Amino acid sequence: MTAPARLTPSITTPPGDGQVYDVERIRRDFPALRMTVNGKPLVYLDNASTTQKSQMVIDRLTQAYTGEVARVYSPHTLARQVTDEYEAVRTRVAAFINAARKEEIVFVRSATEALNIVANGFRAELKAGYEVLLTMMEHHSNIVPWLVACEQIGAKVKVAPIDQNGDLQLDQFEAMLGGRTRVVGITQVSNVLGTIYPIKQIVAMAHARGIPVVVDGAQAAPHLPDRRPGHGLRLLRLLGPQAVRPGRRRGALWADRMA
Ligand SMILES: Cc1ncc(COP(=O)(O)O)c(C=O)c1O
Fold first, then answer.
1. Which class is domain 101-255?
2. 148 CA distance to ligand 1 centroid (A)?
3. Helices in 122-246 by DSSP H: which ranges?
4. Residue 16: partners with Cβ closer than 8 Å, 6 or more residues away
5. DSSP label at 137?
6. pTM of the predicted protein model
7. How many angstroms separate the CA atoms of 149 and 10, rounded?
8. In the structure, what pLDDT confidence band is assigned to residue 220 with cuts at 50, 70 and 90?
9. Mutate which of 112, 136, 140, 214 to test ligand 1's pocket (most atoms within 8 Å of Cβ)?
10. Which residues, 6 or more positions from 124, have their beta carbon under 8 angstroms from its beta carbon?
C-alpha cells in the first residue's frame, strides 16, 4: 500500500535550491516566540488552529490603525487611499491563490462564514430528494451549514467514507456522485490528520458529471504551493485563520467563474 499524502512538519527538511531552512531566523520574526513559559522558550505547536503573528504583520496593523482608518469606498481622500490599499490586498490574495481575476475574491471573516454563505447560496439549487455529498473528514464548518440547508429543504447530506489511514475511498466517492447530487463539499487538507486529498482528481470526477465542488482550503491555502485544484469550472475556495495574517479571523471566499 502506498503511503498517504500528509502535511508534515518541515523543520528538518531543507526547502530546496540549496537554501537552508533557518528556524532561528524565522523564529526571530515572531515576537511571541521570545516569551518564556514555565521558564523555557515558548514552543508553539497549535498552528493548525491559529498562528502567532510576525513583526511585519504587527507593524502593518499599527500603520493601518494609525493613519488608515476610513470607510472603504467613501469619497473623501483618506477613504480613497484606504480603498486603494484594500483593493491592492484583493489583488495580492488573488495572486497568492492563483485566481484568474481579483473579482473572484470576496473577503469574509472566516472560513465558517464563507461556507455558510456558500451553503445558503446553494439553497436555490436544492430541492427535496436532492443530495449534497460531503466526506467523513470535513471540519464541522463544512457540515453544519449543509445539514441545516438540507433539513429545511428536505434534501439529504451523504457522506463519503475514508479508510483506516484517513484516505478517501475514491471508488466509493465516485459511486456516490449520482444524478441527485447537486454539490460536493470537501476539504483539501484534513485539519485532523493532515491528509492531503487528491483534489484535482476529485474535482475532475465531479465536474465530469456537471457537479460543482466547494473546496474548504482553510488548511491547504497557507501550506500547499498549488492552490488551484481545477480550472475554469465553478469552484469555491476558502482560507482560514491558519494563514499568518492579521486579526483572529480573516478569510477569503474564492469563486471561480463557470466555464
Ligand atoms: C479544515 C478547516 N475548515 C474550516 C475551519 C474553520 O475556519 P474558521 O475559523 O476560519 O472559520 C478550520 C479551522 O480550523 C479548518 O481547519
1. alpha beta
2. 18
3. 144-153, 170-176, 199-208, 220-223
4. none
5. T
6. 0.81
7. 39
8. confident
9. 112
10. none
